[in-house]
Write a structure and sequence with these properties.
- It is a single chain.
- It is built from 5 helices and no strands.
- By secondary structure, it is mostly helical.
- The protein has a single domain, classed as lambda repressor-like DNA-binding domains (434 Repressor (Amino-terminal Domain), Orthogonal Bundle), CATH 1.10.260.
- The radius of gyration is 17 Å and the shape is elongated.
- The termini are far apart.
C-alpha cells in the first residue's frame, strides 16, 4: 500500500473549490483565535480578568481561544472592545 503525506493530500483536496472555502474559513478562525490569545497575554490578563472586562463568561473566552468554535459578531465585538480594538471590514 502506498502512503501519502499530508501535503500531498491537502494539495489534491484544495483543487475542490468547496473544500478550499472550508479550509480557508478554518485557517481564518484559527488565526483569529491565536491573535486574540496573543493580544490578551500581551496585556498580561488572565482569561478570567479578560472575560470580566468583555462582560462574558470565562468559558466563552476559552472556547474562542481554542479555535474549535465559531464566534458571533457580537462576541467578537465585545472581545475587540475589551482589547481596545475595533472590527474593521476591508
Amino acid at each position: 500500500m502506498k502512503t501519502k503525506n499530508l501535503k500531498t493530500i491537502l494539495k489534491k483536496q484544495l483543487k475542490s473549490k468547496e473544500f478550499e472555502g472550508f479550509y480557508n474559513e478554518e485557517i481564518t478562525r484559527l488565526k483569529l483565535s491565536n491573535k486574540i490569545k496573543e493580544l490578551r497575554t500581551k496585556k498580561k490578563m488572565t482569561q478570567e480578568s479578560f472575560a470580566q472586562k468583555a462582560n462574558m463568561p470565562q468559558s466563552v473566552i476559552a472556547r474562542v481561544e481554542s479555535g474549535k468554535h465559531t464566534i458571533s459578531l457580537s462576541t467578537l465585538d465585545k472581545i475587540a472592545h475589551a482589547l481596545g480594538k475595533k472590527i474593521e471590514i476591508v
